[in-house]
Amino acid sequence: MRAYIIRRLIYAAIIAWGVVTATFILLQLSPNSPADRYLASMSARGSDPAQVIAAIESRYGVNRPILVQYGEYMTNLVRGDWGWSLSTSMPVMELIKKHWIYSFQLILLSSIFAAILGIAIGVYSAIRQYSKIDYIATFFSFIGVSLPNFWLGIMLILVFSVQLGWFKTYYDTSLPIFSLANLKALVLPVITLGTGMMAGYTRYVRSSVLDNLRKDFVRTARAKGLPERRVIGKHVLRNAMLPIFTILMFDLGSIVFGGAYLTEVIFGIPGLGRISFNAVFANDYPVVITITLIGALVVLITNLVTDIAYTWLDPRVRYE
Predict the structure, then answer these.
(1) What is the 3-state secondary structure (H, E, C) of 267-280?
(2) CA 208, CA 126: separation in Å to the nearest integer?
(3) Rounded distance between C-alpha atoms, residue 63 and residue 8, angstroms
(4) Per-residue DSSP letter, 91
(5) Taking a C-beta distance cutoff of 8 angstroms, is the pair 145, 203 a contact?
(6) Which of 139, 155, 216, 254 has most Cβ atoms within 10 angstroms of its Cβ?
(7) Is 134 exposed, middle or buried (0-12, 13-18, 19+ CB in 10 A)?
(8) Which of 13, 16, 2 is nearest to 308 (CA)?
(9) What is the mean pLDDT of each run of 10 residues along the chain (320 residues)?
């Protein structure tokens, strides 16, 4: 196991380096300049646009050869210096520290919402196979998987914010993080981000539980006279949750800059996805690279944790 973990960490470092390099090159190929955001205000003051661009690019060092910029950036990255945000004029790490909590709360609450409802509905649907509840759950799970979360978010805003007035159309950053008012402000974003995941969990849990209900150990447990609740809770769910655990961990890593990215933009949540979105248009490559790297590391770490946890959940699994 130790050799396996070390090998995976080496692979993770190589992949992280590849992500940073690819992102750096793609941003350098962009036709925009970090100085573009200054042009409108400086030109209004009578300044020469060409001189403005030259001065800003010289200040931030983006006028040097790409290999020189890349080498300097990677060196600073290894030293723990994640760069300076060109669009907000502050260190990138300070920017991350200021905004990460908004992404974290959205992802955490959405994952809890999706996991609890998805697993509960999936188990009940499997136990009551071919019942009306099963058909309804299956129908809505297909709809939930098919709906784009950005469309769902817009529809929720139109109905519950614009028409009914139950929620604000935007996220209020002045609310304390640990408050009921903040929890209320996150209701629509959590539903938007969690619906697709919940629908997927419902389908996976139903399929996995049905598969285990047909196994010999279930018939043996029932033949021994065990209560049905104990058969489902202790024997069926324990085996059915193995593949579900993989899906849960994978979603936890993938939604960081998948659904959460768009959800933050739609609801105006100033999380990592939103500032990355703004940084792309400002050609603020230190911010874009850092947030992309964080997303890649989250995926790599969750995958490693999943593999390690499998040996605890299922003693039959061994990594040589």
Answers:
(1) HCCCCHHHHHHHHH
(2) 9
(3) 38
(4) E
(5) yes
(6) 254
(7) middle
(8) 2
(9) 77 85 78 56 56 62 74 82 79 88 88 90 88 89 85 92 89 86 91 89 88 82 82 79 76 65 87 84 81 82 77 63
Q: pLDDT tens-digit profile of 108-136?
A: 898 889 889 998 999 888 888 888 888 99
SS3 state of residue 144: helix
> Hey, what are 281's tokens?
């248009």
* CA 44 – CA 291 distance, rounded (Å): 33
Residues 6+ apart with CB under 8 A from 196: 144, 145, 147, 149, 259
CB contact at 8 A, 297 and 256? no
b/e map 84-97, b = 16+ CB within 10 Å: bbbbbeeebeebbe
Strands 84-85 and 90-91: antiparallel
Q: Does domain 93-313 have CATH number 1.10.3720.10?
A: yes
Angle at 209 between CA 206 and CA 213, to 5 degrees: 135
Residue labelled with tokens 């209900």:
213
E-strand stretches of 80-156: 84-85, 90-91
| CB proximity list for 145: less than 8 A, separation 6 or greater | 196, 199, 200, 203
Beta bridge partners of 91: 84
Q: Are 263 and 151 in contact (CB under 8 A)?
A: no
Name residue 90's beta-bridge partners.
85
Q: What is the per-residue pLDDT across 55-111, written as a single tens digit (0 to 9) for each?
A: 666 666 666 777 887 888 888 888 877 877 877 778 888 888 888 889 888 888 988
Please list the residue range(s) of the chain that carry CATH number 1.10.3720.10. Answer: 93-313
Contact 73, 83 (CB under 8 A): yes
pLDDT of residue 243: 75
Indicate the SS3 state at residue 94: helix
Both tokens of 75, joined, read 């060196």
Closest CA to 29 of 251, 270, 285: 285
